[in-house]
DNA sequence: TTTT
DNA sequence: TTTT
């Protein structure tokens, strides 16, 4: 069991890259507000990096922009890499398995009078044997 | 919503420290196996740092040791700090809100014939204004 | 571990009642859409009864109306009762521990130009020794 | 989002049935202890019906017996049916998407000296167009 | 730096 | 480095 559920706003537009073998990888950061328990003034947030693969990556690239609100279901993953100075460094990311778009419509899009619709995209749980491209 | 649920084994004994004001803080790492979906041979794990506060910290210190299996419910938190070389560095931890001890008894303890009992400790969600002591 | 996380729309206005001892209890039903995986046309939903206690109950009564979208975190509870015909019947409800209001503003309220704000209410986990009043 | 995570013990052996088209369906009930917050004596439990489909159903039938401890990840589903007396009745079940077997070995099986192994079975999220057979 |  |  390695389950993460987050609701937050995109802190920046998603970047979509492709692995050697052509798999799409989207990455972005979401700001998850905390402090609901504290005084409502001092709003703080955790900025959490999200990674999505394949079809889900493409859906993110096509539909999400900075500021949009999403619910992300995924798992925590710790990646390690080596710096130019031969130091081991660790990165923690959430590998998205499922993302729900919580805003009714894409930002900037024409506000249709239609009832707000949930959008949702599913991705199976991938453990690709390829590196996440930087 | 910032929710994490993990099941894993302690990769090391918990360390319990105290803040200036005397709050207990336990920290340890759990190994969460992945790859259940892949070939069963290549076992890999994510090593995820856990932080518990106050009463829950003390329960961890008194009851958990390396190797024990736990279910951790908490939230992801990203902390930043500055290195001696004035570089900003980020650490991601899970702040535990609730831990269930999934083994029947403490390691090494006398195996009582008693029915295995779930142990569980609850901690309220703390956002202390104090630093996590290193 | 008994954890439920749902996102859905209120199928009716909340009803707030009070126990003998004066504890507030709110109950309502949310419609949780499914079928995202299936053909997008055939929308179906699960109608899931939610119960909130005390301060959280009052927040629900004061802020939620039919149609509003919420994220509910809670636990599943099965209650049994006896019918007039002496038959045992079972009801499954979600006891809310935390509710996030996912719409920017209360329904019918004046649409302020202000940035949409997340509202959130917390309730501790109650296992009251009192019946849920019908 | 319709997510349920439960840890409990099987209250009875799973029953495996087959639909018209040959799909396996396992059903069983798990006892999820509560009251951790209350006095530790008065142990109470919620008895929650679980349904698993296809490959996951078969894994349950082959590996689970009364008393075993499991972690169930799934979604809540409300089914309605009509009694012989033409009354509409509702059943709430958890449709399992993933089950982790939390005991090292099958009950009654020879206690091997081998290191306890997590077993895990995955099922995709099915919304079959067939009835759950009684 | 790691668990079973 | 950040969102509302």
From TrEMBL, chains A, B, C, D:
The keyword Cell membrane does not apply. SUPFAM superfamilies: Nucleic acid-binding proteins. GO terms for molecular function: single-stranded DNA binding. The keyword DNA repair applies. InterPro entries: NA-bd_OB-fold (IPR012340), Primosome_PriB/ssb (IPR000424), ssDNA-bd (IPR011344). One of its GO terms (biological process) is DNA repair. One of its GO terms (cellular component) is nucleoid. Residues 105-134 are annotated as: Disordered. It holds the Pfam family SSB. PROSITE patterns: SSB (PS50935). A motif (Important for interaction with partner proteins) lies at residues 129-134. Keywords: DNA damage, DNA recombination, DNA repair, DNA replication, DNA-binding. Homotetramer. Plays an important role in DNA replication, recombination and repair. Binds to ssDNA and to an array of partner proteins to recruit them to their sites of action during DNA metabolism. This is Single-stranded DNA-binding protein. It comes from Acetonema longum DSM 6540.
């Amino acid at each position: 069991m390695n389950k993460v559920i987050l609701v937050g706003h995109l802190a920046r537009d998603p970047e979509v890259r492709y692995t050697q073998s052509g798999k799409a990888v989207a990455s972005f950061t979401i700001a998850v507000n905390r402090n609901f328990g504290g005084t409502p003034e001092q709003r703080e947030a955790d900025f959490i990096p999200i990674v999505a693969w394949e079809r889900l990556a493409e859906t993110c690239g096509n539909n999400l922009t900075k500021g949009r609100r999403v619910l992300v279901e995924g798992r925590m993953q710790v990646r390690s890499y080596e710096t130019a100075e031969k130091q081991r460094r660790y990165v923690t990311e959430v590998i998205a398995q499922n993302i729900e778009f919580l805003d009714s419509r894409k930002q900037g899009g024409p506000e249709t009078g239609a009832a707000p619709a949930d959008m949702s995209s599913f991705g199976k749980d991938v453990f690709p044997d390829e590196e996440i491209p930087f």
